[in-house]
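R.M. (postdoc): so does anyone remember the format we settled on? I'll just put the C-alpha cells first.
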C-alpha cells in the first residue's frame, strides 16, 4: 500500500506484486493514435474493452500526436499527451470525457495493472472532494476497489489541498509516482474476470472531476492451466493422432 503523504492521498485495495503467469503488455502506440480500443480482441486476444454508458470514445493515444487527451507539463512547453510511455496509452476523447472503461476477459487473469495519468490539475466542476480508481470482479462474483481520494480548493486549477499544488502533483510529467497525476493500480490477490474505472467527486458526481486524463501501462496475465490439465490435453491430442493414423492405415 502506498500513501502519497501523511495527510494527502488515501489508497485502498492496492495489491503490488509481480505477475506469475504469462503477461500480455499492450502496445497502444503500435495501433496508431486515434484507433478505437473498443471491442473484442481489438487490442489483445481474449480482452473486450467497452464503455459502461456506451457514450465514451476510447482510442489509442501517442505522446506528441493527435488526438490529444491532455497536455503536459503545464506551462508553455506543454506536449500533447506528454508523459505517455513509448507503448502509448488510451483515453476517452468524446465531448463528455466519461472515461468509463470496462475490461472483460474470456479467461480469468491473476494480475492486472493500469496507470492513471494527469489527474487533478484541471477541475472544471470546482469540486473539493475527489476520488478515482478501479473496481475488480473476481471469478466468484466478489468485488474489490482500489481507489485514490484527495481534497482540493474549489478552483478550476487547484493549488491547495491534501494533494498539495495540483499544478505540479496533478500533471503527468511533474507528478511524483503516487501523486494524483501518476498513479499505478495493481491487482493480484484473486482470479479476475472484469475491471472498470470508477470516479466520484463531492460525494455524488460519478464522472471524473478532471476529464482531461489518459491511461497507460495496461498489463495483465492470464491464469495458466494446471500442469495436470496440460498433460491431459497432450494425452488426448496424442490419442486423436493415433486414431487418425489407424484410420489412415485401414483406408490404405
Amino acid at each position: 500500500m502506498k500513501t502519497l503523504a501523511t495527510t494527502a492521498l488515501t489508497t485502498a485495495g492496492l495489491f503490488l506484486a509481480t505477475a506469475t503467469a504469462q503477461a500480455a503488455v499492450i502496445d497502444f502506440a503500435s495501433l496508431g493514435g486515434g484507433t478505437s480500443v473498443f471491442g473484442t480482441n481489438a487490442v489483445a486476444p481474449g480482452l473486450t474493452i467497452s464503455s459502461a454508458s456506451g457514450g465514451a470514445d476510447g482510442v489509442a493515444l501517442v505522446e506528441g500526436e493527435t488526438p490529444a487527451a491532455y497536455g503536459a507539463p503545464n506551462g508553455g512547453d506543454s506536449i500533447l499527451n506528454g508523459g505517455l510511455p513509448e507503448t502509448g496509452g488510451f483515453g476517452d476523447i468524446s465531448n463528455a470525457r466519461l472515461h468509463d472503461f470496462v475490461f472483460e476477459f474470456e479467461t480469468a487473469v491473476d494480475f492486472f495493472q493500469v496507470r492513471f495519468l494527469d489527474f487533478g490539475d484541471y477541475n472544471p466542476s470546482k469540486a473539493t472532494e475527489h476520488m478515482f480508481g478501479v473496481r475488480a470482479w473476481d471469478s466468484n462474483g466478489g468485488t474489490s476497489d482500489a481507489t485514490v481520494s484527495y481534497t482540493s480548493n474549489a478552483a478550476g486549477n487547484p493549488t491547495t489541498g491534501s494533494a498539495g499544488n495540483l499544478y505540479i502533483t496533478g500533471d503527468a510529467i511533474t507528478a511524483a509516482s503516487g501523486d494524483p497525476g501518476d498513479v499505478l493500480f495493481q491487482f493480484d490477490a484473486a482470479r479476475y474476470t472484469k475491471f472498470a474505472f470508477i470516479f466520484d467527486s463531492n460525494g455524488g458526481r460519478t464522472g471524473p472531476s478532471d476529464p482531461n486524463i489518459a491511461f497507460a501501462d495496461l498489463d495483465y496475465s492470464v491464469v495458466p492451466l494446471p500442469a495436470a490439465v496440460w498433460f491431459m490435453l497432450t494425452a488426448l491430442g496424442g490419442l486423436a493422432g493415433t486414431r487418425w493414423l489407424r484410420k489412415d492405415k485401414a483406408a490404405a
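R.M.: ...and that's the designed sequence above, right after the C-alpha cells. Also worth knowing: Confidence is low (pLDDT under 50) at residues 1-22, 227-249. The longest strand covers residues 101-117.
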